[in-house]
TrEMBL record:
Tagged with keyword tRNA-binding: no
Residue ranges of every copy of the Methyl-accepting transducer domain listed in the record: 135-280
Protein name per its UniProtKB record: Sensory transducer protein YfmS
PROSITE patterns: CHEMOTAXIS_TRANSDUC_2 (PS50111)
């Protein structure tokens, strides 16, 4: 049997709203009024809002507007007003004759939505920073790769110079060997000439002495060139290793930048969704 009087309708609403609250998984508040005063008020958790039962309805309030305009009224309230942002929705209670006998309203806190929006905004900012950093690292990696290429060219040039020097030292070694042989032959001929070859013997001895010194110098030069070639080979191998590592880093930064851009898009979409929820 449907309630007929205004009092019956409001009493029915007052009996059923606790069941209504228990069935919802949300943290919401409920307000019930007649045409003049508040009949029930259950605020949502953490909402700094207290309305005593029996208090007159404030002019221009959500329930007042719903009754006067005879339609559903939405209102978004930021956290500066009650310490917690929330959405209010009020509906007029109309009897069978079409007369407004009261109103009911629900209050839904949206602090979690706003927190989600703040987090998505911060995530978007952080991802943009990461993407920018990745781009900078990738650019620096390209510069390092260019330096490595130049260094390889220098090392390869040094190896070429070392090889040419080695070839020159080999030629000098042959010359020194021939000079030593000439000095030896000259000494033999000077000895055969007796006293007439004494002056020539001195020259031959100096030739052999210079040849010996030249041989030592050539030997030292060959050792030095060998060390240069060995070190150049090691440097080339190390530079190639660094070049490969830089390439891996550059590729990783490029991939990370692409992922960051995708996360930025998702964060932006999340921000739009939470904004739409807040704007309900």
């Amino acid at each position: 049997m449907q309630p007929n009087t205004k009092e019956d309708i409001l009493a029915s609403v007052l009996r059923t709203y606790p069941i209504f609250l228990q069935t919802l998984p949300y943290n919401i508040g409920v307000t019930i009024t007649d045409r003049e005063k508040y009949l029930a008020f259950v605020p949502p958790e953490n909402l700094n809002l207290q309305i005593p039962v029996g208090q007159p309805i404030r002019e221009g309030s959500l329930v007042d507007r719903a009754m006067k305009e005879q339609r559903k009224i939405f209102m978004k309230v930021d956290k500066s007003a009650r310490g917690l942002p929330y959405i209010g929705c009020a509906n007029p209670i109309i009897d069978n004759g079409g007369e407004v006998v009261g109103a009911y309203a629900i209050s839904l806190p949206v602090d979690k939505y706003e927190k989600t929006r703040e987090m998505s905004t911060e995530l978007h900012r952080q991802m943009r920073c990461i993407a920018a950093t990745c781009e900078n690292v990738a650019a620096q990696a390209e510069e390092i790769a260019a330096v490595i290429k130049t260094l390889l060219q220098i090392v390869q040039g040094s190896q070429t110079y070392a090889k040419n020097t080695g070839d020159l030292l080999f030629s000098l070694k042959e010359i020194v060997s021939q000079t030593n042989l000439l000095g030896l032959n000259a000494s033999i001929e000077a000895a055969r000439a007796g006293k007439f070859g004494q002056g020539f013997h001195v020259v031959a001895a100096e030739m052999r002495k210079l040849a010996g010194q030249g041989a030592e110098s050539v030997k030292s030069g060959v050792t030095t060139v060998g060390m240069i070639q060995s070190n150049s080979t090691r440097i080339t191998a190390e530079v190639h290793t660094v070049d490969q590592a830089v390439t891996v880093i550059a590729n990783a930064m490029t991939n990370l930048s692409a992922v960051s851009q995708q996360v930025c898009v998702l964060a932006n979409e999340l921000d739009l969704v939470t904004k739409e929820l807040n704007d309900l």
